[in-house]
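Bug #77: duplicate submission created two jobs. Keeping one. Sequence:
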Amino acid sequence: MERSTILKITLFILTVTFFSLIEVNAEAADKENCLMCHKYRQIGRIDEQGRKRSYYVNENIYSNTVHRNVPCRDCHTYINKLPHDPVTEEVNCANECHIKPPFSSENFSHKKIIDVYNKSVHGLKPNDSTELKKAKPYCKYCHQNPIYTKVDEERVASTSLLRCLNCHERQGVTMAYKHITHRLRNKTSRSPQEIVQLCSKNCHENVEQMKRFRVSEVSLEAVETYNSSIHGKSVSLGSQVSADCVSCHATNSIHDIYKKDESQSTVNLRNKANTCRQCHTNVNDRFVQIDVHSSHKKPIIHFIAFGLTFAFYGSVFGLIGLSIVETLGRKKDGIEWQIKKGTSWRGVVRRKPKV
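Kept job's structure:
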């Protein structure tokens, strides 16, 4: 065998070995071996409406999501045999999981936050119509099992944390520390732009659907008036600190959104000052009377907006007109317009000065 052939074979073996060593191992909780079937990309079916339903689960991706340690049947509790029958029930996010978070002796559950959600305006009520129940956002509408971004252990540097490590295991205490500090710094993990889009699409931006549910005129214009407000314009330009929908309409519980007439609502007139103080200082009674969702249909707002628009465009076009008049005057006087040697006007004025 030639020497070049041996080198090629050796290089190929080393390359394959290298990539096999750096392959990311999936460690999703799969005690019942559900991925024995769901690991195949083509697994799925055509439902009654003719839509293709995919049941494929990418283990490498799932093992990096926030639910990576949750066994499948902690959510899909209705499955009691394998292979299972066709799924007809939705996942109940209030189920108790078979995992314990750091520093807790109880199994984890979303039940507390779901109880808050059920009391909110988005929660399902007994007298809701079937159409309204389908339109209201449930857990999976907003939460799509996001990828978990792991922070390096070395980046978690704190004297208080190091003291905790005298008793607690490093992995558990650092995970809890990172999660708690992240939540203290950020009310939500989504950007303001994502929150506005989430609240708008398919719901509050759908005026026809809102009309069927007989919401108020102010609610029908909520998206439009927010986008035209100083908050909306700041968020659309990329601001990460300007108020989005959740900033004003919810507390740190996020899910406690109520109608403004309800006493517990954050935008109720009695609670509005505290809500505004999250961002603004010197908030008084007159400040809270400013309507963020001011409709341009109101006569005063309409004329003020028209006046400011006229002043802006009048200034711009006035300056352009003045420049044109000046240019024509200089051309008439024999001054040539040239971009040369640092100036745009050259020549001698033919016009004689008046004595």
